[in-house]
Amino acid sequence: MIYRFAEWLVVDLFGLSMDSRLGQSVHFFIYDTTKIILLLATMVFVISYIRSFFPPERTKRFLTGKNEYVGNTLAALLGVVSPFCSCSTVPIFIGFLEAGVPLGVTFSFLISSPIVNEVSLVMLFGLFGWKIALLYMFSGVVIAIFAGIFIGKLKLENQVEEYVYHIQSIPEEAATIEMITWKERARDSWDNVKDILGRVWIYVMIGIGIGAVIHGYAPEDLLVRYAGKDNFFAVPIATLIGVPLYSNAVGSIPVIEALLEKGVAIGTALSFMMAMTALSLPEVILLRKVIKPKLIGYFLGIVSLSIVGIGYLFNAIL
Predict the structure, then answer these.
(1) Where is the protein found, in the record's own terms (predicted)?
(2) pTM here?
(3) 46 phi and psi, to 5 degrees?
(4) In this model, does residue 241 exceed pLDDT 90?
């Protein structure tokens, strides 16, 4: 229905041909904008309602005192159900450290949360099917777990700024979570929808706009030549290009969709997406207020190499 509506706007209202480059680009933009905004609003509401039973303080207590490997796995999985971009995970990162959660475990959450979240997974499923969505989730979680374990083994606690360990959290309110009514949960979930849409809509629109241009105008043979499976260096180059860019998974998905339609290898496209969402200059700037350059270097190096490895794996098996 949304596809037909977008087609009607392009052909009947705007007078464009669906066979023209401009018509294809405009149709892509209208169709993806409508589909993604509706899907995003629905999923954020549902997941915010479920998440109302698991406040941050309870999450911190859940992770504190766990065995190292168990803690890394749990932190990575908690990142999946936390719809945060790379920058907004930093305050939670500080809170975990202050609460006594081990450094490596905290990094597993920091890596997993922006790369993989339930909203992006639903959108990946809607666009590409469960196979790609589940493989993307699995690879993101694996990167988060093993990168966190590796950082934990390095014993770099002295690379965290000293003041972080002296920050005092605001105590959880006396009223238990169970006392909140379903109407209050629904109201808070709707407020969260408005808040998240208000913060990410510009990235969604930019991502869809870039995707629309690629969809209508990018030369297919050129992209296949330089970003297809046959170019061995395509994956690391895509990762390096993605690192300085800043986007969340939702905003980057339309770009990935357009690249895949043009013949870009899936591992290359997803490495680009992971680099954009897990590693960004704004995140590094924020992290520098919390951790020292040596630890930032380990973080960037480990995650970048892991993303490149996952990209090659995807290209080999798909």
Answers:
(1) Cell membrane
(2) 0.67
(3) -60, -45
(4) no
